[in-house]
Design goal:
By secondary structure, this protein is mainly alpha-helical. The longest helix has 23 residues.
Length: about 110
Amino acid sequence: MTDLTITDVSEKYHLKPDTLRYYERIGLIPAVPRKKNGNRYYNEGLQKWIEMIVCLRHSGITVEALVDYVKLIEQGDSTLQAREDLLKEQLALLETKKKNLKNIRF
């Protein structure tokens, strides 16, 4: 993978540039390096990070839960159990939503 501009990344992951900036501002993605012209350039590591965030968001995990998850990742391997617990909690919430949706009668 090569470094991509914010426009390239937004097209690749179907996100608006403002969403990428927001994710960076709230700490969902690490600070994005900038070139001399001030433009952001997303390297391979950042692109993989964004893939993870997009996947988890598409799974229905809230931004708030993702912020907590990212903070745990940044703390290192000592938080592996806490990360697993957080994901299990999110899975239980999603299963409850699924059950509730199945119970809807039209």
